[in-house]
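Researcher: Let's do a round of design. I'm pasting the structure tokens now; please hold your answer until I've finished.
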């Protein structure tokens, strides 16, 4: 812990224009919690907000993370209530994902700073850089110093925030606000497909093509992680990543409002762009892009009533 704090302070001084440091929140994970119990917990945490989900003026969200949608969620008939709960469930997860991405970016930024200072990398740093290059699909035939100079600069473009407004909007559209079968049976938020395999959820009523399945995730956070990884690594989002880099360098304002147009080609749904813009604007999801997690919104005394649903990641 002390070493991590020292590293963060050092990074703040040396790399302030490059990175943003935020406090990590303690993690409270819940699994198979009924809707009424979840709403009770949210009430204890003061997680109400304007429209039932916009935490203004504090811009703080509780560090309460669900592994799956609550039992009975698909039985909610009040669309306004259901959609608000959908956003409340995904907002903390999206904020956590961005904390994790910034931690990963800071780690690479620290290695990049040492490389620029020393002109070389330790074996441990080389292994980590190669691992990240593989994860984020960074390829080059360069060798030696030129290789790592290129990879590190490319990683700092690819490993960055994916605004919560984009992740929540895309999930809402792809799953019909969490009511889709793929959410209940596969924890799938973005309907990721896997091809030429029998592993996964078989599509129903969509096509006679039996060559693909819908990917099954261990939890909804894993689905969000893969969606963010796709945005941060796939060639189709290269233009978006470059624009995001320019926004970071000029204003450090990485908002879904500016990045959303670069995601429209990622779905085959008709009028996806129009639905996306309307959903993001109507539900004012850009507010969540400016928000942070707050571990102090829920206490141990509050949690003791929900212990049976608390789990580990």
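Researcher: That's everything. Go ahead.
Model: Designed sequence:
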């Amino acid at each position: 812990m002390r070493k991590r704090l020292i590293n963060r302070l050092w990074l703040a001084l040396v790399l302030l224009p490059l990175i943003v440091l935020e406090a990590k929140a303690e993690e409270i994970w819940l699994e198979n919690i009924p809707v009424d119990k979840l709403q009770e917990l949210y009430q204890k945490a003061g997680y109400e907000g304007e429209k039932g989900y916009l935490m203004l003026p504090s811009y703080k969200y509780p560090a309460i993370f669900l592994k799956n949608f609550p039992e009975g969620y698909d039985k909610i008939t009040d669309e306004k209530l259901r959609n608000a709960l959908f956003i409340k469930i995904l907002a903390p997860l999206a904020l956590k994902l961005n904390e994790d991405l910034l931690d990963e970016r800071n780690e690479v930024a620290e290695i990049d700073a040492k490389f620029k200072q020393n002109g070389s990398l330790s074996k441990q740093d080389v292994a980590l850089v190669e691992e990240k290059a593989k994860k984020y699909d960074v390829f080059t035939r360069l060798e030696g110093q030129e290789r790592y100079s290129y990879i590190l600069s490319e990683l700092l473009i690819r490993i960055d925030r994916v605004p919560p407004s984009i992740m929540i909007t895309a999930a809402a559209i792809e799953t019909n606000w969490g009511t889709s079968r793929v959410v209940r049976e596969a924890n799938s938020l973005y309907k990721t497909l896997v091809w030429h395999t029998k592993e996964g959820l078989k599509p129903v009523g969509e096509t006679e093509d039996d060559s693909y399945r819908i990917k099954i995730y261990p939890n909804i956070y894993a689905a969000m992680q893969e969606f963010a990884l796709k945005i941060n690594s796939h060639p189709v989002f290269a233009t978006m990543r470059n624009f995001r880099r320019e926004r970071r360098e000029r204003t450090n304002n990485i908002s879904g409002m500016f990045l959303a147009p670069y995601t429209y080609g990622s779905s085959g749904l008709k009028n996806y762009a129009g639905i996306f813009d309307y959903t993001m604007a109507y539900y004012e999801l850009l507010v969540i892009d400016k928000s942070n997690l707050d571990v102090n919104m829920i206490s141990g005394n509050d949690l003791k009533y929900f212990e049976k649903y608390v789990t580990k990641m």
